[in-house]
Amino acid sequence: MRFVFVMDPVSKVIVDEDTSFALMLEAQARGHHVDHCRLCDVGLRGDKVLARVRKATMQRDSAEPIELAEAEDIDLVAADAVFIRKDPPFTDEYLWLTLVLDHLEGSTLVVNNPRGLRDANEKLYAHHFPEIMPPTIMTSHRDEILRFLSDIGGKAVIKPIDGHGGEGVFLLANGDSNINGLIESVTHHEARSAIVQALIPEIYGEGDKRILLVDGDLLGAVARMPSKGDLRSNVHVGGLDGACSGYGCGSDDHRDDAGAVTRRSIVLRGSRRDRGQVDRGQRHQPNSHSANVTFDGREPRDSRHRTPRRKSPRLRGVVGWLTPTRFARPRWRLLPR
I need a surface site. Which of 3, 10, 146, 175 has the fewest CB within 10 A? Predict the structure, then answer.
């Protein structure tokens, strides 16, 4: 099969941290043809979706993990699947890409569904599940954040709506002399809304759990632990991943959350997210991810934050799930609004 990965330039890939690289490497190992292209390489001619792609060859070489061949212009109908692997933020160019790829409906599988990417912001989508997430607000107003902080006991986490990989995530605590500066930094002096969420103190001792779903089915889970002195468990800022144990790692626990997320994914504004993940902090679900399906948070791919990791069998499972029979099923069509 032929897979096209729409993603950032290959110069940003980090071998031991990049989930897109792991997927591409596994696809290559299974004998599939793998192409790379950037957002700006995808365009339209009438209603045909064209792309300037380069055949990608992967190797576990940190200096040059992906080698690209000469450019080739193709009609994406000729591809078996297109993987949208561009990192956030969800810019205008990202939006345009999803609108263009909508034209492939009924011909080429696009993972994730473009409409789902537009409808399911990873920070805001989680608000459809208040019963499995900690107390949370979205606001740009400092006085509202301070009032919320007092209401929940004096400690919260603030994060930008379009952030990824732990960027811009801070602990807010009553009595901290930096609290106003932190709020101003994330809200841009009350010009941009932010997510503020009650701190789950168990994060320091037990970390969080990332649950991976494929087409609504539970594929597995991984635990992530923050490094000493940090509340962020993102691998790109020093967090460690490992085997999932304790609450939230039993199959029944996972399936409860997976079922709730999948049902909402199907009915919410008619969208469908074929692949996604849930970040579960103890008994709560802070984030749901759809822009990129990853194990280690959204990738800023900063070479200063390299954490050696073993290749996950769960990622091999994602590629193995893409079999010819999957493409013949009518469920890939967008559901009507």
Answer: 175
Rounded distance between C-alpha atoms, residue 89 and residue 73, angstroms: 27
Report pLDDT for 255. Answer: 56
The confidence score (pLDDT) of residue 157 equals 94
- The answer to whether 280 and 257 have CB atoms below 8 angstroms apart is yes
CATH for 136-198 is 3.30.1490.20
CATH number, span 2-115+324-332: 3.40.50.20
What's the confidence (pLDDT) of residue 19? 85
Where do the structural domains in the chain lie, given as residue ranges? Answer: 2-115+324-332, 136-198
Element spanning 52, H or E: strand 48-58
The stretches in the chain having pLDDT less than 50 are 266-273, 275, 282-286, 288-315, 324-337
291 phi and psi angles, rounded to 5 deg? -65, -45
